[in-house]
Amino acid sequence: MKKIILTVFVLFFSFFAFAEEGKLAQHYKIFPKNPDELFLEAISALNQSRFEISEIQSQNGYILFSAGSKFYLLTVTKKYQNQTEIKILPQNSDFSISEEVAKQVFSLIEAKIKTRPLKLVK
Asked: Can you give the residue range of the structural domain that contains 84?
């Protein structure tokens, strides 16, 4: 009986872990672009969306910006040869509302570079 209860318990919590991973996957994309060019495109997309940029660190590849009363961190990192990852994460780790901001910025970047992001193969 204990094994059955333990199995149900583990399955129940693993369901929530997969749901959270799905939410996190919507906050990053990989583009076939140079990191420097993509960083400039990200700044352009944030300006076009009229988000308030608080801080830009081009050497470290991050931008701190706000949308409404929420703060977000956008990071641009080189992953592989000619592949760059952009992450847009809420500063307070509250993923419940921030999904629309990430979608908006990603769609503007995709429109500017006229290419689709690469899908990560696991």
From this structure: 27-113
Number of domains composing the chain:
1
The pTM for the full model equals: 0.71
Which residue, chain included where needed, has tokens 């809420």?
90
User: CATH number for the domain including 40?
Assistant: 3.30.530.50
Instruction: Give domain status of residue 55, yes or no.
Output: yes
Q: Mind listing the pLDDT tens digit of every residue in the chain (122 residues)?
A: 655 654 544 444 444 443 444 566 778 888 888 888 889 899 989 998 899 999 999 888 889 998 888 899 999 998 888 888 999 888 877 666 667 888 888 888 888 877 555 565 55
